[in-house]
Amino acid sequence: MNIQRILYLATFLLFVIHETEEILLFHKWLNRNGGYLKKKFPRIGKRLTDQFSHISTHGFIYIAIEETILLTSLLLYTWYAVRPEIWIGIVVMLSIHWSLTIIQSVILGRMIPGTVTSIAGTCFGTTMLWLFRRWYSLPSCLLWGIVLFAFAMINLLLMHRIVAKYSAK
Q1: pTM of the model as a whole
Q2: In the chain, N or C: fewer CB atoms in 10 Å?
Q3: What are phi and psi of 139, to 5 degrees?
Q4: How many Å is the Cα radius of gyration of the chain?
Q5: Contact in structure between 25 and 113 (CB atoms under 8 Å)
């Protein structure tokens, strides 16, 4: 197996492990920390606990499956179209997401679901960006990362709304 396949597989596995960590721990964490969130951040805490209480664990699984299908499609495209700069963009996009998870943990003063894998993922992403900076245009990779991150956030918002709608029925 060549190094490129290993790196693509590592990207995929880090994503899947991160999503699994969030799925398995999120509701338990929210039940334990919902009061803390409401007390420390009254407006945002209430809104978050209300929003996430409407999404079941199965709902989170549906969202994760959809995101995994999208990520797999993107990774396969970058592999077969030989577009490694887009793969670096995917890694940047995931690193932005993982960095935000770490920042949330710091702001809350507590570990949130996904923090452990976010630390590993951010280290991986930073290393990949550093290693590949000589071969691929850094602005191009960052642009791909930002565009993909914006797309991922829009997709996530839509998926949360869809799952919340079906969970309410």
Answers
A1: 0.87
A2: C
A3: -60, -40
A4: 17
A5: yes
